[in-house]
Amino acid sequence: MNITILCGYSNSSYARDVLRAINERGLGRINVVAAVNSGPPRTVKSLWAKYGWTLPWAMLRSAASRLVSGVTAFLPHDPKGSLEEEVRAQGGRLILVQDLNGEACRWAVEAMQVDLMILAGTPIIRAPILKVPKLGTLNAHQGALPAYRGMNVIEWAILEGASPAVSIHFVDPGVDTGDIVIAEKIPIVEGDTFASIRFRAGRQQCEMLARAARQALSGPLTRRPQRAEEGRQFYSMHPRLKAIAEIHLPA
Amino acid sequence: MSIERLKPGGEAACEISHAAPMRRLNGYLPQSLRRQLRLIGDAVQNRLYRPSHLRLWLHDWLDPSNGSDAAQPARDCYQRALIDWLKAAQDAVPGGGVAGYYSLEDGWSAAYPETTGYIIVTAIDASKRLGDKDLAARTRRMADWEVQIQLPEGAWQSGLVTAPRIPAVFNTGQVIQGLLAAYREYGEPAYLKAAIRGGRWLIANQDEDGAWRKHTYGSFPNSYSTRVAWPLLILADATRDPSFRKAATKYLEWASGRQDDSGWFELCTLEADHPPLTHTLAYTIEGFVEAGVLLGSDRWIEVGRRAADALLHRFELRRHLAGAYDKGWSGDHSFSCLTGCAQMSQVWGRLFEITGDARYLNALLKLNDFVVSHINLTSRNPGIRGGVPGSHPLWEEYMTYRLPSWAAKFALDALFIEGDVFSDFLRRNGTARIVDRSLGESREHHNLVRLQQ
């Protein structure tokens, strides 16, 4: 079976972790299609629009970060390795495209005759790309579906007294509205912060995606359909609400 | 009224002073240069050589992030500043009414009957919350003034008090609301009597299908007069006269027929060839929600909520509420209508109170951050300090280079409701945690139960 990962950045550590989790299950060569990093704004107008009066400070930070990255290039690599290294190590291909919804991406996915596509941190992918893979496209969402769609759903779930969860679902043209494949809760432990829960959820979703891919290899996945009108879509949480949600975490 | 969108300055100014040669010259200039020249013309006309005006202009010009994520002073600083601005707006005009706006070009305008009407409601609320006796006395002066200027037929006039005295449906509705609030607070029968006369005039001018077609802004029926139906329902409660309720319900029926499947309202605009401003959309939504609450009818609340949800979704995705929304909720993001923003904050606050859905509170907090980031707290100019510009940026479409009194009123309402609902939310969430602990439940068990439910 031909599995391809789609990711938003060519150096995505999340895509690398998903790839590694799938490889550990020995599912054969996996290809990765990644969007080329667009980089920071270049013209004076766009820089001004982004930074305003903080532009000198932003330029100083950028220069410092370039200096640091220049120095670190001589140091030993990240022990986890880059996405590119991971792809090469298992004999797959890393294909870079300008736009994940563009013609080049569709052509690449079609040419590779993809059976199952996995999204690993992408913008919203449009229908022309989604309909190419024979078995469909999987995505991991850090929230229990259909109750918690959208953004910051770990925080929203905790604010509402529910357990945060991870759901693996098929992707359809809606936002987090495709059929659910697996859903698991993320345990909360004492001293947890949103960052630590999100970190744990990240690891768990890589595992769950790999498990779903393996299941897809052995037979059709169980699909629990969700209707677009059930559940709610959440948006980025205001810091004042986040502070309240934090109170709900066990000290 | 709050529905003026005349542009002072700009093209009109060029036409008057240098008409023909300028027009001829304009034809040869590239569009970007023409725009720059117009901005310079505006700058002179709006007296940007005055430090307080220049500072306000620079704030909008230099503020690429819209200021919404900058560290902000406490909300009560803004509440106080808004109240002081409204007091200054009242002091700027004779008689007891509140000036319509502060214009960078002309300074304070004349008093505005319509907005003075609904400012009474906010000012009474503010005087009680803050124990401000001076403000309480001012609200009486506002109400007395409204009674004095009532037209013989029972209506109130359109536009500023200095404009020709033409009766107007929308304006009459807003004054009725203010007078009823003053009657409830002070028990003065003259206020109720004037409100009843206004209400009867509204009924007399209503068409059979419920719409108002005569005495409307732009001479066409509109769907934002739900904010007239709402005061009529308050009047029905105050007088126990069912005819007011009947008229209000008839209009709500008519206006709900103007809503399409997406929740957008047609005829919600001030000018037939312009898309509805967020300001008028918010009027319509607010009218439906408040009428639904008064009538105990989920149906009207749902009509309002459908549109409020559509705006919330768009606001959250773009992180910006457009100044106007056309059919299909296609937004004009070239500007923000700050009045409409404050109104939508308030509507979401009300919907949070009604439904308990924290997403409304979340959006309210974000939008209030945005609105207050455009309130100047330090200017020496009382027309600028504590005022809310009509548009962001200042030179854009709605109330160009002006700070309208209704923007200050709605911003104050939005901050009050934020304070109420947020402290209530905090109390409920704090309590929930204590209850969990006192029951000795493990959190995981509690969550499991919630998930199973």
Write a structural description.
The complex is a heterodimer of chains A (251) and B (453). With 251 residues, chain A is an alpha/beta fold. Chain A has a domain at 140-251: Rossmann fold, CATH 3.40.50.170. Chain A is built from 9 helices and 9 strands. Chain A has helices at 13-23, 44-51, 55-72, 83-89, 103-111, 127-130, 153-159, 194-218, 239-247; strands at 3-7, 30-35, 94-97, 116-120, 136-141, 148-150, 165-170, 180-185, 232-234. In chain A, strand 1, helix 1 (13-23) and strand 2 (30-35) form a beta-alpha-beta unit. In chain A, helix 1 (13-23) packs parallel to helix 4 and helix 1 (13-23) packs across helix 8. Chain B is 61% helix and 5% strand. Chain B has 16 helices and 9 strands. In chain B, strand 5 and strand 6 (330-332) form a beta hairpin.
Task: Outline the fold blueprint.
The complex is a heterodimer of chains A (251) and B (453).
Chain A: E1 3-7, H1 13-23, E2 30-35, H2 44-51, H3 55-72, H4 83-89, E3 94-97, H5 103-111, E4 116-120, H6 127-130, E5 136-141, E6 148-150, H7 153-159, E7 165-170, E8 180-185, H8 194-218, E9 232-234, H9 239-247
Parallel strand pairs in A: 1-2, 1-4, 2-3, 4-5, 6-9
Antiparallel strand pairs in A: 5-7, 7-8
Helix pairs in contact in A: 1-4, 1-8, 7-9
Chain B: H1 11-28, H2 31-45, H3 51-61, H4 75-91, E1 101-103, E2 107-108, H5 113-130, H6 133-148, E3 156-157, E4 167-168, H7 169-186, H8 189-204, H9 226-239, H10 242-256, H11 278-295, H12 298-318, E5 324-326, E6 330-332, E7 336-337, H13 338-355, H14 358-372, E8 391-392, E9 402-404, H15 405-439, H16 443-452
Helix pairs in contact in B: 1-2, 4-15, 5-6, 5-7, 5-15, 6-7, 7-8, 7-9, 8-9, 9-10, 9-11, 11-12, 11-13, 13-14, 13-15, 14-15
